[in-house]
Amino acid sequence: MVPKEEYTWCFACGKENPIGLKLQFAVDENSCTTTFTPKREHQSYDGRMHGGLISTLLDETMGNYIHLYEKKVAYTAKMEVRFRQPVLIGEKVQVVATVKKRKGRLIEMAGQIIKKDGSIAAEADAKMMYEGE
């Protein structure tokens, strides 16, 4: 199955989703990247971004490499996230996903959330499974 060019109601990147994150991705043969600045409605404890949404940023950026570059559909089979330091509300971060390994229907990805000073706020490893190959 070849994915649609655009999913307008996707929580991460859908342009029509009123509560979505509205992410815009850049992709090349090696990586997928996006930036995000959390707002007050994205917080957990005062002034800090919710960890579930940090995980969402990582998951969506890794998945969009497959969707945008390979033009395939894949689903997250397993994802492990390590939180290193908080992402503060109003702090613009960069999210980067890269391919680690491919084997059959499985693609292993790595993701990082990088702060302006270059430090890593969170990182993830994921195993993504291609649909129906």
Automatic annotation (TrEMBL):
One of its GO terms (cellular component) is mitochondrial inner membrane. It catalyses: tetradecanoyl-CoA + H2O = tetradecanoate + CoA + H(+); dodecanoyl-CoA + H2O = dodecanoate + CoA + H(+); (9Z)-octadecenoyl-CoA + H2O = (9Z)-octadecenoate + CoA + H(+); octanoyl-CoA + H2O = octanoate + CoA + H(+). Its EC number is 3.1.2.2. Its main location: membrane. It is an enzyme of class 3 (hydrolase). CDD domains: hot_dog (cd03440). This is Acyl-coenzyme A thioesterase THEM4. It comes from bioreactor metagenome.
